[in-house]
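Q: My collaborator sent me two sequences in one message, no labels, and asked for predicted structures for both. Can we handle them in order? The first one she listed is below.
A: Yes, handling them in the order given. First sequence, followed by its structure tokens:
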Amino acid sequence: MSSDGWLKVSGRLKEQFKLENGKYLCPSPIEEAIGMSRFIMQVVIYGCNRPHNIALIVPDLVALLVVLKIDDSVSDEELVNDERLETLLDEEIRMNCERIKKFEVPKAWSMVAPFTAANNMLTPKMSIRRHMVIKEIFIVPCQYYKLKKFGSM
């Protein structure tokens, strides 16, 4: 309690948001479903005041190299732009979102750099700082990130 008699409550901000169509959703169950893929290390869903959700994905490049039988000498940029990788991640997201309501499933996704404590995207407890990710990637112009829509390959 402050000297003025005010009580300060701190804690997690409300994660629920509303899509452009007026439907509310909580991103955590969607992120957990997508994160069950062995090819995805981290994921953040965002869609506040947008027509649909967008997934920011941090892929597990080591697992992808093994499954796609790609040589270790391939650069990360070449790997990220590989159509087989896009197809594989599309299919993984589709499979893992089968039990999620259709309007909650992200319609587009983008691969981003890992969220770390060094780039201030993780807390010391290793939880994703959603507000920082949204501020850095969605509020700051989104055109820097190549969004991939499902079935666009």
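Q: And the one she listed second?
A: Here it is, processed independently of the first:
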Amino acid sequence: MSRSRSRLAADWFTKLRPNATTGDVEHEEVVAAATNVTGTTTASIPTTALASGTANSGTFLRGDRVWVSLSTETIIGLKVYTSSGTWTKPSGCSKVKVTVVGGGGNGGYGYSSGDNAGAGGGGGAGGVAIDVIDVSAVSSISVTVGGAGGTSSFGSYCSATGGATGAAGNNGTAAGGAGGTGVGGIFNVTSSSGDASVKLGTYVATSGAGGNTSLGFGSGGLIVSVRDVGGMGEYGKSGIGFGAGGSGGASEDGQNRPGGAGAPGLVIIEEFA
């Protein structure tokens, strides 16, 4: 490669462009602004000098210096399972992207006796697993959707365990339930635990909130006070959406109350040609 220019300073820059015929990347020195400067020159640089793979109109240069084919896959369908069933492969489907969410854990029971208060911990959120699966050789796959604290799964490919139930609070505080975990996916999430309950002195307690998922929200904690006139305690609230934990129950003066139910799990299947 050569170039010629006068002794007068000039502004030069380099252009890289793919050759549509050979696939090589062409290197060009260009004069942007100058006077009394002669010529520009071009040369070809083999793509192997820049990255591995083949450069052409159907590839792009990835950040790790590899030429990668552009995806030509097309989504042809979407199935959402809120209860267990069987997925049947539609005509033309070769791959699926699956999102599996376990059921949220129940909130813990709130117990108290005498002139006292107690509250349960929040339920943990269900785990999440995301996977991309080649289904060209199968015709149907079993889908399991977990209820409160239950495991959801897509056949034997991937699954997500449910969140644990919050601990019971007996005249005091209690721990939140652990979050569930995704298993077998290319992306697996251990979801958030439920919050612990809080005791404020002898007479006041707040139950723990449920854990959250990307598709559901745990219900907030509930506060009770023995000094409330006619206080009857508070029932825990159910998780909202999918996979969220329920809040703990809150008790005063022996008015024991259960925690809220965890939200059920979910399985989403995106179908690709």
